[in-house]
């Protein structure tokens, strides 16, 4: 392999590592294999000054070894997929933003996140999610703006414009769409088996709108779409999906990224090295290997062998490399400081959007919402990470509300104490969801006024008796709960 070919291959990968500083194994990887890009996770983020220094060190290392700026990537979507919320501004999830019915809120959240990332030195945000939640029980849930294609497109475009206005690249994901799946691709291989015409009318509407709006990145989904690929393989490794759909039919000219190549949907079928080769041969510009320098090194060696034996096209590899370098020539340096990182104004805006998203979706007989006070019992499920992509912090909403209002927290199988007149039950995607719904129905049957609150998507409210008030609060975190507590105090949902 020539030095030029090594650099060309290195530009096609984005690799993650553990910790707040660059570990030696990653330095060695860059020096030997000329890896040109990095993906960061919460495990890399401890403070603004630390993150800013880490990004500066990454840039210096990769520039010195390759001659080019790196893409420094992160998943800072909004809501539960946030690598910065523990040190910066917690933001409403996409579905909460969509529930406000105001696309300017999506623009504002995109701009806010862009300000924070640009200040920290991150130049490529792996957001927005443009999946339409056409299957209410799909794993992506509240990471989607809406179930309707047109609304998803409108809010997704507003978000990406806010982000890119700040000089941070946006990436629409997960192409062609994961909103009608029943399997999380981290864990298995999803299939969306519908006619091509139906996909164009649903899943692809938002992505086509993003392309027209000038989005600079698209991420592939590890999902089988039989309408576009005869082989039973994920779209990430399908040339008809990556090159045929994205490049030729939709006219996209930016950077195509893969989803993480360690995910079971690809790894179990091909392994990481050959899955990556197949993705790059399909037309992916940059493949993501998020966790292991060893896996990245093995992948580089596999790609070198593929170049030498002709199973990886050298001319096309060089063309994709030149395309990447051309895009990197327009990257902007960091701008701004810690004042753009979770400022009071940013936090106030995010809280206002979250508050505006809350919805009372059912009131028995149109009756007003019961007052939440010391005669209220609180119960329900706790916050949990619903997918490996989540960054949820532990949170017990029932415990927090009992402390805030002077009521009593009870277990799902517990009885209301004497004097209790009302109950608030917190619901979310959780193994105990059915138990929580049953507890709400049992307390209502015992004569309490019961309010059930979904801290996720509306599907969590299924199975409740008609005499129970029902509300949607969208996300189970401190931001969502804070908005809900404010609404309880105002008796306004």
Report the portion of residues in β strands.
5-15%
The CATH homologous superfamily of the largest domain corresponds to: Glycoside hydrolase, family 3, N-terminal domain
Mean pLDDT: 95
Biggest sheet overview: 8 strands, parallel, barrel
CA-to-CA gap between the ends? 64 Å
Structural class given helices, strands, pairing?
alpha/beta
Task: State the low-pLDDT regions, or none.
Answer: none
- Tell me roughly what share of residues is in helical segments: 40-55%
The shape is: globular
CATH architecture of the largest domain: Alpha-Beta Barrel
Classify the fold: give the CATH topology of the largest domain.
TIM Barrel
Strand order of the largest sheet: 1-2-3-4-5-6-7-8
* Distinct helical segment count: 17
CATH class identity of the largest domain:
Alpha Beta
Number of domains: 2
As a whole number of angstroms, the C-alpha radius of gyration is 23 Å
How many beta-strand segments?
Answer: 14
What would you say about this model in short?
With 493 residues, the chain is α/β, with parallel strands linked by helices. The protein contains 17 helices and 14 strands.
